[in-house]
Amino acid sequence: MISYLHLFSHIPLSMIVFQLFLFYAYCLPTHSAEVLKGNIEWASVRDNEYEEVLNKDKILILDLETALQMALDQNLDINVQEFTIKKTKDQLLNSTTKFLPSVSFGQVLSRRKGAVQLFGNRTFGVDIQTIQPQIQTSFGLFQGGRVLFGWLSNKKLLASEKKNFDSAKQAIIQQTAISYYALQGHKAELESEMARLEQANLNLKERKIAKEFGADIRLNVLLAQQEVDQSIARIEEVKGNLYIESAKLNELLNVGQSILIIPAENLTEKSLITWQNQPQINSLIAQAQAYNPQIEAVKLLEESTKAKKFQTISGFLPTIQLSSTNAWVGSQFDELSSFNQYMLYAQYDVLKNLGGAAVSDYLFAKHSQQEVQSKLQRDLKKLENEVTKTYLELKAGERVFWANKSSLKYSEEAYKQALARLKAEVGVPYEVKVAQTELEKARANYFYSLIKYKTAQVNLIRTLGLASPISLVKGIEL
Fold this sequence. Notes:
Elements: H1 2-10, H2 12-27, H3 31-39, H4 50-56, E1 59-62, H5 64-74, H6 76-97, E2 102-119, E3 122-142, H7 146-212, H8 218-253, E4 260-263, E5 273-274, H9 281-291, H10 293-313, E6 319-331, E7 337-347, H11 350-354, H12 357-423, H13 429-463, H14 469-474, E8 476-477
Helix pairs in contact: 2-7, 3-7, 5-7, 6-7, 7-8, 7-10, 7-13, 9-12, 10-12, 12-13
């Protein structure tokens, strides 16, 4: 207290002027922060009105649910996958029509020489034209299972493709959610760094004013300037990360690379998974095997190849056809007369069976089924490993996140104490610098671990086959 009174008694006017300048510095806005804020326009979007915002501001602010729905509606990979289902539906329709009888319409027009007629010394040949319109209907009474198993194979194939489509959609949902969380993290970092820059500018002005009046040293001014420069560099780095991640999300949403996507929601600590009981790896694996669409697709494909094998077995059997022909015969000399013909005949392709074509078809179908069975066993084992890995990553990410959250809490407290010590003139600016550096590290680690933790939750939900806009927005119970 004596030292302060002594200083005030020597330069009372200087200290008064210094306090006025200090107050003026705190009231001034920071120019650097304003410039950086001006580079990012925080637009707003009502409901799903993307078009107006895209054409107007080139800034698209989305919540997670809207982003996921846009990905499902507009992603090009999903659009391509839809045509695979349409083609398989066409195959199923084609095999369905083979249950119907075959009806054909035709007409036979023939011309022949008739009887020779004599007229005096001259002879004339008469050309007789015969017209025979007919309708022929045939129906397979016994196909040996060819038609039935062919239809069943296409039906199972269509169901398999639909599961593949579900798997593709879940993969897009997974990628979109992870990219959105990364954007949220970059946005939070950017806002934090901009606040840090504002504080750093104020501190630099304070240090310069204090040095001009002899109340501070050049070292503290240099440290304050270094802090401003580091903050500006960090902001540019975070902005670059924001633009890169936005470009990734643009591709998933198919909105064009000229658009900057900004999350409408802040990154939260809310968990996506609520555990009803202590989870067991075996129960999670069983759930994944039951609901993962990729596994279901392979199972259905195995059933399709099995039906295809039975279809080739039916190739060794004869076919029995019932044929009906209704015809009308007439010429220019007489009227049309009708007749009906019914035939029941069996057909057996001797050359195909004796030549080995039927055997090769059967072996090909059999090996195709065995290939899919091997793929199913492989995919089940991979799924088991994936569930185990994602669950362990989730638990590890959870522990790291809570540790970093605790570290951030203590770093914030240490920084406040360092500021308090500096204001009480029992500390030095270097202590504040060190505390602030540690605080920024703790904050960066916090955001990084939170993003990684939420990413691990998304990966587990996707592995279990439960990824959807609802599950990633409202969460799920396991």
